[in-house]
Amino acid sequence: MKKYKVVSFEWFAYACPYYTSEHDINNWYGCEHPLQEETEPDCKYGIVRGKCYCFSCPLGFTIDEEDWDDPGYDFDGADKGDFVNEKGGWIGNGDHIAISIDPDASRAVKQALYNYERWQNRYEEDWDGGTWKHLHRQLNTDEYRELLEFREEYEKLREEEKELLESKLIRRMSG
Questions:
Q1: What is the DSSP string of 73-120?
Q2: How far is residue 7 CA from its own chain's centroid?
Q3: Largest alpha-carbon pair distance within the chain?
Q4: Secondary-structure breakdown of the chain: helix, strand, coil percentages, each rounded to the nearest 5
Q5: What residues does 19 pair with on adjacent strands?
């Protein structure tokens, strides 16, 4: 049975390595994934740019009401009330995306989900759980090592940035 994690599309998009807000296509919601089918010409640069939508995301798919009872879906702490209106009608159209957490998920899917988890747990100093543990079990040794190196480098950059900001603050206060 395939397994999926259902997450907020808005937060997933912001953490996705293919998301871009550098161009005014689709109200600044751009997608640089090569398999994105929703596109628009960028006349300014003479190229076609992808548009970021839940319904066309190459990394996942939108959910339907019948998915709620499927045991292969992890709704990440949400309850059914988050997906229905006051009259009981399904409103899960486009707000949430199902991302594969199977071992055969592509590297791009695993990286995007890792980025999402990292973002969601950004204030947890000791974050090393949830999907991260699940993902590292799926990767081969080289991929796991690459993710660890990426994570270590990211943590070093965060620490350097923190030290830089602290030193700037001290200079301002003393000067």
A1: EE-TT--GGGGB-TTS-B--TTTEEEEE-STTS-HHHHHHHHHHHHHH
A2: 8
A3: 63
A4: 45, 15, 40
A5: 31
Query: Six-digit token pair at 1?
Result: 């049975």
Please list the ranges in the chain whose pLDDT falls under 50.
none
Distance CA 53, CA 94 (A): 8
Residues 108, 123: Cα–Cα separation, whole Å: 24
Token duo for residue 147: 């993710």
Token readout for 127 is: 């974050």
Q: Where are the beta strands (DSSP E) in 21-160?
A: 30-31, 39-42, 47-51, 60-62, 73-74, 96-100
- The Cα 110–Cα 100 span in angstroms is 8
pLDDT tens-digit map of 101-133:
988 888 889 889 888 888 888 777 666 655 555
Rounded CA separation 113/93 (Å): 20
